[in-house]
Specification:
The structure is a homotrimer. Chain A folds into two domains: 76 residues, no CATH class; 238 residues, Alpha/Beta hydrolase fold, catalytic domain (Rossmann fold), CATH 3.40.50.1820. Chain A starts with a strand and ends with a helix. By secondary structure, chain A is of the alpha/beta class. Chain A contains ten helices and twelve strands. In chain A, the strands form three sheets. In chain A, strands 6-5-7-8-11-12 form a six-stranded parallel sheet, sandwiched between helices. A four-stranded antiparallel sheet of chain A has the order 1-2-3-4, with no helix packed on it. A two-stranded antiparallel sheet of chain A has the order 9-10. The longest helix of chain A is centred in the middle third of the chain and has 14 residues. At the A-C interface, helix 8 and strand 12 of A face strand 1, strand 2, helix 5 and helix 10 of C.
Chain lengths: 338, 338, 338
């Protein structure tokens, strides 16, 4: 018989898996039971890979959020009994990367707050440029070139190199054009439910006729050539997995979107000649674009990338940036692999 | 050091997440450990959203089933230490809704037993009308109009208003026609792997030629213009994720289906003029219809709804009504959001 | 108040669900709390089905790996208090099956090592034939007929009957041809992200023009009419969900693939006349083939099977054989159901 002293219970992530850490002391030793040992410290990770070895965790590198990564199977337990009571676990540092995250329409740099926090917690360096016509920029009269140049200038000013350039939604067209200008600085392009336009296409060319018409009407209704997303479209199209409360919260950050860049036909010949590695992250509940029959993110637009790494998740277009930032960060991280 | 008194361990769901509740008393106070506190009562919810606040649970409103909702990240712990030992947690009541669930072919109102039980447990009001030619109705010689009128009469007789009208499979065509008659009573239409017919179409018009031919042969074989689903088709098409035992159990409730309504071409002009909010729940292992190339639930038929809220799950056509009613109920509930 | 004696904590799988087994003894009886009882032995299974009954587990039949099966809902607890302290739980034995697993291109019989180990652990009999031109065979100058005959001879030599014949990738074409020769020995055909060729088609006929051209160039570059998979294509196409380290590890077993069988047009008239039950396991992150618009595993090729049982998982083309063998084994097992 024994009683035990619980020193603490922690929840972390290790190697993309939730980790439950029970720190406790038993008054008497347990006997070994099968392949399970209850000891001074217990670590549970779920799911685990048979034969896997969980390294000593170091608090500093543990992400704040937990997520469920289904791609490895669960492990039962790992234990360690250090000689001295002051002994602490040491972590393997994950690979540190530099990310430049480019938001889409009806969004600004705060779109990435949650994801950036998670990636930074994991030791990565993260930049979230806000481009012309968005966020704090009062001028909505911008072109696609001006937007692209915002991001290129930002990168050149900070002299960034060897980074992962991530684009979401309309941001896909931005990273296509940015990549044309500064291909040598970019380690990999990651499109997350983002437009991959063909040479000579505009964003609205990828929309179903009905939606395109709606865009044209909203544009015509505005005084400053912008398109404001009506709230009655927002929950169904952008945050369909969110609660009503979250949908309303999200909508508070929606601002009128400059219309011109959505209608501009882009010259992308240089993009299609680039050898930069590419990835596509597709969330299968994203219904902003119809999911097939000549439309949609994947495979319709992703296929245009030629050879690319595909990562699939179960979110929608916006919601996970706030409700599951660690999940989304993990999917983006998975997509960065060489 | 401490020993603790376990008063109970409970498993619930909170805000669509599994909740593990450990009720215990420590003989001595714990010290705070990082952001984790072990106290009088411990609540674990998995997954959790950073910054999330778990309200006091009230047993009455807790659903009986547990399900895994992957759309929010895990939370570590929430604790409360009420002043008096008799203090009990009080719950936020979830939003109460009224549901009218309309089954499909080869089914009757019992199809919804599990889902209705879960939704009722969560405080919702649920109706499951059984329509002409099905269940206890001995007359199989029915038309699509008669079926529609069964549901309309049921709703009018009970004087239901402001309800969610859910249709499954063939039930999709029924709620299309019901909505035409009583649009003002309906808060939202939810199609779960259900037909959304075009104006002038019949159900069999959406089937691949081979399946349509099979339907015609089965119809011709019957004495009473019905189509009996042969058992050799049932496990692969309707319950492909089920065990063999469950498949047999499911098949015991399959009855001959009136053929005429499946071949009737429906006038749906009024439906396509309705402004009623619409949702589509798609289960991606459902293989009753081919999953693409001109066929299928999503996006092929769902797209016809115009603006709709999409919710995706990983089930098949029938199985989850019995093996995962809380999961299915949750997906339907998610689809009801405005 | 009570203290308890923990005899052991185990992690298993029961009926495709993770099972947490806490063996403990209380000094004093607990009182019953709601529907949860803490007693001599506690079993948690997640997810559970309401009303489900967890049989007594027997250690011998428990698989070594744990996996998350999302198709059933969680159960709270099951308890038993045997009269005598030596009382042990007895398990229901799962259905024992015989599997013949046929690998694809750029692979050999070791491809199945993990999956075969899991299936054997669960009591099944598993064969993994290695066919002509692959693995230890030094002769790369083989035809599709020679490959098919390798498998047929293996099966006849061991006099196997009533087995599940599983083909992966190119192995799909092999089991199509094997089934033509020995249909009466086969209980069911299972295609896992495998080619289902039309009559008169070759493997390269299913590739996009660009990929086909790449194959032709690689073939022309070789001295022995093989195609070596370049490493720069491998991580993105074959192991996109794997870590970089795992991708490199996988690549060490990639050997030059005989080219001829990939370009041979196959007569499959006899295959399409077979009545053998068929299943398709589709992993939705598999991007070896474009996922639609006239290409891909499911529904594009799977639909050719006519009536088939579909099972969907979230892996890619290769990775899960090593990182989640129990998950993959489960999906294949699910596909075998009648």
């Amino acid at each position: 018989m024994f009683t035990f002293r619980t020193l603490g219970i922690y929840h972390w992530t290790w190697n993309h898996r939730p980790l439950l850490y029970l720190e406790c002391e038993s008054l008497r030793r347990h006997r070994h039971m099968l392949n399970y040992v209850v000891y001074e410290r217990m670590l549970f990770v779920f799911p685990y890979a048979p034969g896997d070895y969980i390294p000593n965790p170091n608090y500093r590198f543990m992400p704040q959020g937990l997520y469920y990564n289904p791609y490895t199977e669960p492990r039962q337990v790992w234990w360690q009994y250090p000689q001295d009571s002051g002994g602490r676990y040491r972590a393997m540092a994950p690979q540190r990367l530099t990310f430049v995250l480019v938001h889409g329409s009806w969004a600004d740099a705060h779109f990435w707050d949650g994801v950036a926090a998670v990636l930074r917690n994991q030791g990565n360096i993260v930049y979230t440029p806000e481009y012309a016509g968005h966020g704090s920029d009062p001028n909505k009269n911008v072109t696609h070139d001006m937007i692209t140049n915002s991001v290129v200038d930002y990168i050149k000013h900070l002299n960034l190199h060897d980074f992962i350039l991530v684009g979401h939604s309309f941001g896909g067209t931005v990273i296509q054009k940015v990549a044309e200008q500064i291909p040598d600085r970019i380690k990999r392009l990651v499109f997350w439910d983002a437009f991959v336009l063909k040479d000579g296409e505009s964003v609205v060319d990828e929309l179903p006729p009905q939606t395109k018409k709606g865009f044209e009407q909203l544009r015509a209704m505005s005084n400053d050539d912008t398109i404001m997303l009506p709230f009655d479209l927002f929950p169904a199209l952008f945050v369909n997995t969110a609660t009503t409360e979250d949908a309303k919260l999200f909508y508070t950050s929606v601002a009128p979107e400059p219309a011109k860049p959505l209608f501009e036909k882009l010259d992308l010949k240089a993009f299609y000649a680039l050898q930069t590695p590419k990835s596509y992250v597709y969330f299968y509940q994203d219904n902003v674009m119809p999911q097939g029959e000549g439309y949609g993110w994947n495979p319709h637009m992703s296929m245009r990338l030629g050879l690319f790494r595909l990562i699939v998740g179960d979110g929608d277009h916006f919601t996970d940036t706030r409700t599951r930032p660690a999940y989304l960060a993990q999917k983006i991280y998975d997509a960065t692999r060489d």
